[in-house]
Structure formats: structure tokens, C-alpha cells
Write a structure and sequence with these properties.
The chain is α/β, with parallel strands linked by helices. It has a single domain (about 40-75, about 145-395), classed as sialyltransferase cstii, chain A, CATH 3.90.1480. The chain has 15 helices and eight strands. Strand 3 (about 200), helix 9 (about 210-215) and strand 4 (about 220-225) form a beta-alpha-beta unit. The longest helix is centred in the first third of the chain and has 28 residues, at about 1-30.
Amino acid sequence: MKCSIRPLFSFLLLIVIAATFTFRAAVRRGISGVGGGEFQFTSNFLLEDSKETLLEKAVFNKTLLKFAAIDIVEQQFKQEVEHILEGNFGDRGRYRSISSVRGSNARTSDGQIPIQLRSPKFYRAWLDGRRVLQDWFRKKRFQPEIMSELVDLVKGPIDRHNGVVGGSRRKYKSCAVVGNSGILLKKEYGDLIDGHELVIRLNNARTEGFTRNVGSKTGLSFVNSNILHLCARREGCYCHPYGATVPMIMYICQAVHFLDYAICNSSHKAPLLVTDPRFDVLCARIVKYYSLKRFAEETKRSLEQWSTVHDGPMFHYSSGMQAVMLAVGICDRVSIFGFGKSTSAKHHYHTNQKAELHLHDYKAEYQFYHDLVERPQVMPFLSEKFKVPPVVIYQ
């Protein structure tokens, strides 16, 4: 009798073991293919008792980490900042925006403060810009804990401006980051995008005429400082395609753009914010790590040659990448739209631009987005204390 029970018991035990592994695999993969394959969703939910079993242990390549931490233009940027703080623009600042506001292009032959800037109004703006630049540059360093400070640095000023009391430390419940890819024209995500608490748009991409595809709601405009540099040439520094009451945040491409910031900040009705330099450094390292990794895997060449292929001094993360990282820091749930490309789609949905900018490594950034959704624990340089929220990519 005992002999007849053992095979049955063994068979039942095998079923239990198989079911356990099937469940674990399902949790690891998350849920995919929702909505007839129109988009992919991966849950970051993990059972507390099973973290060690389910999480893929992150193993980072020390050589890649070392190379990614090297800022090729650090010394050059430092010298540019020092010249601007001294009032010496030379020929490096490309500083025409303030003088062109009033139709003057006067500048002293020795590169000192432009004559137009010596008027009381513009001189005060230069002093304000110099002060902000000095404070900003003093904080420029690698500090991965910055991700946990973004709510206070970004949402806090916006809440205070809007008269929200006691809500500054609460994250946005849901955020949509809307990229500018032409693939958006193939879908009608407008209502879905507008259903998020915060909608972040990039580089002043217009929505008029595309609301069925990209929505109409905008809660935060994310731009690079070249955009503001162009706006500073306009009367009143008009730079509000989404309305004058929409807050704007920008990352700095050139130190001299702090002078444009000072001019425009005085006329903005909504907060005009600059990304924290510690956040910039973190994003730069992450993207460079993924670019170096892709370069090594695809070319089998030495990492020392990466700079010549990607024009190292000009290499930079895209606005979209940093906007996504910002959302990861200030939102409980993140949805990403309009990231990716197709041979049958325009580069930007709202322009006729066809080619990508070579200073970005979009393929490396796509790998970053994949890990952000599927395997956030393998993303380099993030603090272990920071928890990545659930992220959804809509294709």
C-alpha cells in the first residue's frame, strides 16, 4: 500500500513545484500585450518575501562605470563659467540674445560686458543671472540621492506658486511624458494622455492640430536652454506655446544661457526652473554608460575610441531622457508616449525634420527605457534607497 502512495505523492509534489516556478516567472515578466498589442505594460510589483528570488542581481561593469564618470568637457565648461562670472564673454558665449532684444549688437572689443548690458535694466539682469549661475555651479557634482529631492525642487515651487498648502512633498499620482516622435500620428492617445494628473511636454512641441494624437493638457514644459535662448530674442521673452501660466523647466546647454534665464524669469507668470546640476550629472552618466555598453558590444573596439565615434565633447542626453528621469523622481506612476521611431514616420510629429541629432545616442537611450520598464534594478548610478515607480511605454 505504501508503495502505491509514493508515486502519487511524487506526482503531486512535481505539480506544486511547477506551479510555483510558473507564478514566479509571471511576476517577473509582468503583464504584456494589453490592449491587443498596442502597448506594453510591465509591473514593478514584487512580493516582499520573494525579492531576493525574483530580482535579477545587478552586476555593473567597473570599466564602463569608470569611463561613464569621465566628463570630457568639465574643464572647458569650468573656464566658460569663470569667464562669464568675471563679465568676460570673449567669443565663447555666443551671447546675442539680450542685446538683440533691443536691436543692438554692441559688444566691447576686449570681450567685456556688452555696452547694451550696462544699462540699469539689463545690468541688473546680468547680476541676477551671474548669481544664479554661481549658485548652480557650486552644486555641480555627482550625488545620486538627488532623485529623492526632485519633489521638493520641482513640485514644491509649482505648488507654492499655485497656492497649494501641504502638498509639496506628495508626488504626482500619475504623469505622462509626451515625446515628439512621428509615431504619435499613428495613434489617438490624446484622451489617455490628458487623463494623467501631470502632462510633461518637450521643447515647446505644439499641440494645436494634433490633439487627437497628443492631447491638449500641459502641466510642465520641459526644454533645453537653447529654446529659451531663442525666446529671449522676442519682445517680453514670449516662450509659452501652452499658455503663460504653464511652468517651465530647462536644463543648461551653455553657461551663458543663465543670462537669458535672468531676462525671461522677470517676465514669466509661472515658475521658470533650472534642473539641478546634480541631476544633470546623474543623467549624463547613465546615458553615457548605456552608450559605452552598446559601443563595446556592437563594435568590439576599445572604449577609448568611443569618443571619436560619438563626438565626445558634444555628446549629450536627449531632452526626452531627462524628462523621463524627472517624472520617475516626482511621480507615483509614469506613462511614456512618443518615444521611438519608425521608417514610415517623421522624426518629429510636428515638424518635417527627418534626421536624428548625432549628439544623442538614441539606441542607447532605448535600451535605458527598456531597463527602466523591465529591469530597473540594473540601471547604473542610482541610489539603492531610491525606488523606481511603475513605468508604462505606449508605442
